[in-house]
Amino acid sequence: MQPRNMSMSGVVDLAAVKAAGEAKAKAEQARAQAARQGGGAPGAVPPEALVLTLDEAGFEDALQMSAEVPVVIAFWSERSPASKELAGLLERLAVEAAGRYVLAKVDVDASPLLVQQFGIQGIPAVFAVVAGQALPLFQGSAPEDQVRDTLDQLVQIAEQRFGITGLVVDAAAGTGAPAAAPPGPHDALLEAAMTALDAGDLAGAVQAYKNVLAEDPGHAEAKLGLAQAELLQRVQGVDPQAVRAAAAADPKDAAAQIAAADLDLVGGHVEDAFGRLVDTVRVTFGDDRDTVRLRLLELFEIVGAEDPRVVKARTALARVLF
């Protein structure tokens, strides 16, 4: 079954962006305080509060919780391997999101009334509840990048439309003061990647990051480092004038626009890079559009999800897509 994307049409209230941004800034300050102090910030919740088991008796509590954090509801069953796999992915992403949303898992065999209430036709099925309002996200299996993209948009909509910025997570809850982190299993490879970058050996850096990801596909530092190294590798040795001429000649040429956006970003013209690819998404279709969208999401990650230019471009992308 093909995934059904969430419709964002009509959800974004631009008049609320400023107030939501202020609320978000306060939440980020609280998260930073919790990180510096090893947790213990006022109102902080333990990490286990990010993944819940939801049944019919607890649904009202989930509705109330949705006033302060988006609640992602995943319907699954032991009878469905695909739903179990998606639920596992969602658990990992919820922990990575660090309180920007919570995951509530519903066993369809144990909660038939919730299945009926949400009109579930098949599993896996994923909804969200924001400020008491239910939104369908997707039904059926979906690749990780699409799941991440949809959840990122959910967080953005919750912030902009409702001023909901999520929970502060106390990472040290129940453990006392955090101990010094032991050396990571991939520190040597990461150091090799940085040494290669410093020496201008982009191919070596790319391979070092790939070696880390081969053992740990979710390693955030390696994923970011790989994206940065590959960006530098793509622009190495290209003729900027030829690239920009090709992009100017055909606004619908996805490859030409992507190449020009890479040059824009490396040259420090971040908004130009984002604007170029958003415009290209607007005028392309099918595989070309998806290729451009994915490159734009990659550039977002390189710049940083909290950068105001990324937030602005995500809003523009959401308007184009939905």
UniProtKB/TrEMBL annotation:
Belongs to the thioredoxin family. It comes from the Bacteria. It comes from Streptomyces antimicrobicus. Keywords: Redox-active center. PANTHER family: GEO12009P1. The keyword ATP-binding does not apply. Residues 40-156 form the Thioredoxin domain. PROSITE patterns: THIOREDOXIN_2 (PS51352). The lineage of its organism: Bacteria, Bacillati, Actinomycetota, Actinomycetes, Kitasatosporales. It holds the Pfam family Thioredoxin. This is Tetratricopeptide repeat protein.
